[in-house]
Records
---
Amino acid sequence: MSPNAATQIPRAPELPRPGAGALRVLVWIVVLGIIYAYGWQVTQINLGELARKAYLVTPLLSDLVRPDLLERRPRQEIAEAGIGLDGAPAPPPETTRGPGRLTISTTSAKIGDPLRVTGEGFTPSRPLELIWRDQAGSTTTLHRTTTDATGRFTAALTVPNVIGTSNHVIARVTLEGTVLRPSNALNLTFFRMIETVFLALMGTTMAVVCAVPLSFLGAKNLMSRSPISLWVYYVVRTIFNIARSIEPLIMATVFAVWVGIGPFAGVLALGVHSIASLGKLYSEQIESIDPGPIEAITATGATMLQIVRYAVVPQIVPPFIAFTIYRWDINVRMSTVIGFVGGGGLGFLLLQYINLFQWKQAATAVWAITFVVAVMDYLSAVVREKVV
């Protein structure tokens, strides 16, 4: 050792040149400014249009916050009688409101045959319509009259040219005053919303059944034990990535052409896309589990199935349940969009309202979606709290 080694002073680290950090920050500010300036131009952002054209959207927003929920309808008495055509049996009445009774001279007839319709028990001296409803649900007004002083009437009709053999004759008497009832939009929205929820449920269930086994094949920590299993891992993950990159809207269009317009096409579209999404989430959860139990069970000479059963499954069940519930919530909202291309559910009804510029009726559908999503979010939180 040199005699001067002990007295040597270590060289101080080289300090950054003054102003170097500030220059780097300035460069980044300039670069980001150029990027956002170009993005502003490409996206054609014009904040002035928001103020100048606000009057165009005001009526629309006004209708959207006033959904069509209730309406006043005339008080009515309704009586029905079934009639079968071409030898078919007469169907039972479907809707009856009030004490009135309707009788047809025959319960089986043919197109063009004369009919004699009598009614009794209705409110006296009130206007009355006789309506024919065919098997498809289409209605035609055949006769208008007035009940007599005792609440009776008699009318001669001719069987119209209709499709189907199961038909009804309806007597509708209009009374004084009105009654507040759920609107037609609310009734349609309710049944379509039920269809939407179950559409999402069936699509999610189909996805879970397929995604759970595929997720084990897409987990690298389980599939890296041999070249063959590693090749299977890459194939499965590639399938997940391809399927996730295709929007459910496109899938719904394909399936609507394949199986026809309706909720089945929506179930298939949501199911296929959810398989890829849940498969990726499940497999990543498997990859992030604690390796300790796997190493311990592997050291005992356990098979792959035993490792999965005793070391992997207990760690993944709670997050799997959370992912599944969250995906169902996503599918409820997504099913509204795929309904635009014939995937069934509430979206199909919403599209009709939008095309007809019926914004209050469209608002009914939009608020129904909001309500259901909020309820599902609350229920899923309760389930996660108890299970996860």
---
Amino acid sequence: MDLELRGRTVLITGGSQGIGLATAHAFAAEGCHLHLAARTESRLRDGMREISEKFDVDIEIHAIDVSIGDNARALARACGGVDILVNNAGAVPGGSLIEVDEDRWRHAWDLKVFGYINLSREIYGTMAERGRGVIVNILGTSGNLLPSSYIVGVSGNASLVAFTQALGGSSLDRGVRVVGVSPGDVLNERGIKFLRQQAAETLGDPERWRERLADQPGKRAALDEDIANAVVFLASDRAGYISGEVLTVDGGLRWRQRVL
């Protein structure tokens, strides 16, 4: 299926690894030009090289920390003409309410919550003036499942779900769609870290993390590419009347119930 994205320009935060980099590859495969933003320039250059070897698209990289409001606004000015914004940057610590202090909580939200909000505010305004554009927010199923051992992520993702729904509920009146993709467990560096943490808590040994996959649908976690494919579809005109919705990509895990 031709998603008719060729020639469009995409800004992806957290674009140097994991879901962000896989999403960059997926958009490049559709002929999109890219702006990739992340904090580590060396990883951005590695990602740019990977993509350039496969696809003939323009790529600009931005080594920047969007947890700082002025940086987010500067990035928006540098990329103001983008057709698609993918908010993906985030590094949220695990832990309970007692275990995560205020400084760590605020630091995580400055990137994952206010980073999304600040960049969306700037990019959305430009898109609305043009009368077209798409914002895709990468969230997480913890916004639905509410594990207290990940309370910082739970609260942040839940707020971003509401943010996506609230903005997306009216944005199409100005020609802009706002949608979200909510991954479950993903088999990447960050996902394996959390699987190891879960294995330590439930099995007493982080090295047994692969055993956690037995309870996943299909006995596997999602791949970065599974999430990227959902993002690219939602950003395309094939999803042109979808706004304010958050698509969960977890193989149906959150609908499983045990009957005792």
